[in-house]
## 1
Amino acid sequence: MATEPPRTQKMELWLADLVCPVDGPPIRRGALLTSSGRVLAVGEEAFVRPAEPAAEERDFGRAILIPGLVNAHTHLELSGVKRKPGPMEEWIVSLVREMRDWPAHLFLASAQIGVAASLAAGVTCVGDVSTSGESATAIAGAGMRGVVFHEVLGLDPARADEILAAKLEACDLFPEYKGLIPNAVRHGLSPHAPYSASLALYRAAAEEARARGWPVATHLGESMEEVEFLQDGGGALARVHRALNGALDGYKPSGLRPVAHLDLADALGGLALAVHANQTNAEDWTLLRKNGVRVCLCPRSAGFFDHPFADAARMREAGLDLCLGTDSLASSPSLSLLDEARALREHDAEITDAELLEMCTRAGAEALGFEEIGVLKPGGAADFCVVCPPRGVGDLHLGDVFEADAFVVCTVTNGEVRYEAPSA
């Protein structure tokens, strides 16, 4: 398939021994024809090349060209913060105390570290949970796409409207970040988690997001500590609140598990993305699916905190829409979604290579509301990355991108190279 290009526009022909468009089978000795940031044609080199013989050509040879990876959940502002694995309680307290008084330029600098690491890992789009909003500048300035989910916290239901109003006022002060790609960075809201945001705050955020056309994401069912806190108000997370805030004003435990807790307040219907979902069961999955909530799994972050990981295989069987996220560099060794996919396979040995690639690309794009990325097709955005497999001979296969020694050699958004490995 091909679309007719404007005659005056420059054409680029990108070639690789294997092209994986995601919405179709892998293409041996494949080609991608692009112009003005859009895909014009994708297919076998012998078919695509005659469509524009004068195109500028880039041949990656023994490599695999795939859609740009979509990291559906991260915290770019934490990229300059490193922590050792340990109890979640200690991690939260030390992190908040360190960052509590950061000026805006430190949030921006930390986010820029994360953006650079993301592009080097083939990530072209992110779902970023932001405290300051500064990550929007970093994402837009690097030519990436993303949703910046502005985080709101507060357990006192009496203060929900006040907390949300303050966050929205800050959001409204931000300019529209055009960056290198128009409309590439969008706003969203993120009540942090059921153990840190009241049900009133969830409801208020959902209503405001619906009015503005923004998506909503939240951490949900991440740990047993979260379950304990919702059921009786005690445990490690109660100690976290007292250490940081001195009190638990207005908080009353619902006695329910995390998904049922949000459902109690009709808060699931306004939710686009639930992150982690380690502590969920078949009943929860039914509620999430019924409300159209997608789930973002972060297996390496679960390992960092020694949390029992979600039952990904049964989630897939239950029909949940799953995508992948790295979480932050404060709780994960890298921002590589391919590393995250490798970790997921350790928990879900039956998942296919095609399903893994889907979770890394189209599923994440759909979860964040980006229709033009996640697959390589005529009319779509020219966002892709090129992965060099381990040294070897013979035909390449889709699964080679998930080999431990595979690495990204080039990342492209909107038809422009944003990252290139030094030896590429």
## 2
Amino acid sequence: MNSRLAFVVIGLAINFLVLGRGVLLMLVLDYNGLGLVALVQAYILFGGLLHFGLLNGGYRLLCNAGPRHRQRIIDLAYTAFASLAAIFVALALVYASQLDTGEYRAVAGMTALGALATLLRAWTMNEMVAAGRLKAANLTNAVSIGVSLGLLALLPLAPTLVAVGSIVAQPVVFVVVALASGAVLRPSRLRMPKRLVKVIFRTGFVLFLTGIAIQFNSLLERSYVSNELGLEPLGRLYLAFLFLNLFQMVPTLLEQVFLPSIVKAHKAGEESAVRAEMVNLIMLVVGYCALAALALWLIAPPLLELVLPKYVPDLRWVYLLAPGLIVFTLSAPFALMFNVIIDYRWYVIGYGASVVATVIAFAAALLSGQAFSLDRVVMLRSGIYALMAVLLVAGWWRLSRNHRGFRPLAGSRNSV
């Protein structure tokens, strides 16, 4: 097995182990505990994306940087991380001072640590991939998930704290192992050259905006439910969150596999090769969505009844989420074009519209004094996914006028 295939396979295996961790937490925690875990995960993921384009722009520069330039990029990155660490600590202290139990204050501290570690994990992973150290990335991944899962043996002692600790431990251990093993460069000093800052953030800021949009929507959604409905109702959505993470694994993997060949064919001006790859990708995604929908309809109820019977009623929210999520997933092969031609305008339009629509919907609910039910919250998320899909496909249609290879049926139409 070559290193790239091993990297993909191990990444997929780790995602399934994370899914297994989620199932175990559902067996041990009550709905309040699950709700708190879901809220913590949202804050960690949101904080872990507050790089303002550093991860995207820095990664692209690292791919072609020489040793001296690479060290300058590393120094700048860790200078930014040090600044963010100070902000995260300050926010955690302010928030913890308003909490009434030691357990919640500990959770606030671990959340700040998890957010910073998630940022550092993404950076160190990018650095290893850019340098071609895929074996080191695989080993570090395996060690970090192993420690995270090992901590679950302590669940009976303090279920909620151990659950959060297990989640936080994964990125923390990854970063520690990566730095200690020499798999990534350490900063030589703290510095932030203005010219390099401009280059990095000009390259990565737009992609940062698209990435932060989804997590902002998720954070807003979970914060609304926890504040207006309570942690227990948020815990009832935990199954839907698990489904969301599981469902996105394969499409993400397919994009990683197809993107390099499509980029190569596009740069070579081989429209027929681009079209062939697009057709293959679309067919695989359509087939996957069809199989997933069938499994959700026929297999999910009896399987859940066997493994997690308590959560069978919670399938309701999975079914409400699935239509919009599937439509959004079907739009992904078309939106892949934006990455290939490096034109992100429609990403900004689609993801920006999702944020605006989410904010307006929850603001209207708060101002009207009539709280959304869980059904409405999940239907809103599903509708937002559908809205994004429509806008992304519209962008694909508009831009593909000048890039005919990205229109799968263009060749057959012109040959008639």
## 3
Amino acid sequence: MGHCEKLERMYLSSPTSEAYDADIDITEGAATVTLPVQDKQFHAAGGVHGSVYFKVLDDAAFFAVNSLIEDVFVLTTSFNLHLTRPVSGGELRAEGTVVNDNPNQLIGEAVAYDGDDNQIARGTGTFARSDTELSPEIGYE
């Protein structure tokens, strides 16, 4: 099994991904995260809470970056997002890519879409190599 497939298994086995019923597809330098919109994700006005937008955007950018790093787990050090359209149903999809893979500065970005392929948000993050090795203990298998 290759690196990207192991990252997918790690993602899918994490408690937070299970809680959101999220799915992921990872290729070298890119990742797509999808999750169904659920009523429990809504704020008081009936739209998806911004934290859910952050989840799909950060996950897509993060795993795009980690697809290029084969020895350790990366960490999000900062993430900036722009919410451009509300969502109240269907599915969210975020497509992440690597903008810069310089060893001293890893940058990923992601664009999120609703079920009708309308762009609903975008985000850019910086990521750093951690001390946590990619291993079966964290689901990388």
## 4
Amino acid sequence: MDKKARLEALKKELESYLPALGQAADTIREQGVSKYPILVLHKLEVDIGIPIIDRHRVQGDWSVNASTLEEFVTKRLVQPEQVDHFRKVYKNPDEFVCLFVLSDLGANFVFLPRA
């Protein structure tokens, strides 16, 4: 499955999550926590962000933690010298949610359209 097909499959799988993902990202921005919210999607326990969706309590395979670029830098998931590059590629948060997806394919940043 190519990258575009995987993105489409992920988008379909996350349709029911999208309102909560958007709301979490908006809250992070509106409360001045960060201009760069990152939502961590995972199936195992992770030590980053604040849990907002537990896959054992919803109909879905993904748990979600809310995080930020700043936390990713602190935890060295994004190197300090890469921050400017990350900010340049970060898509408009009014139109996309930034996901950090931990799956059997590895760890990948994905910008999922809100609509």
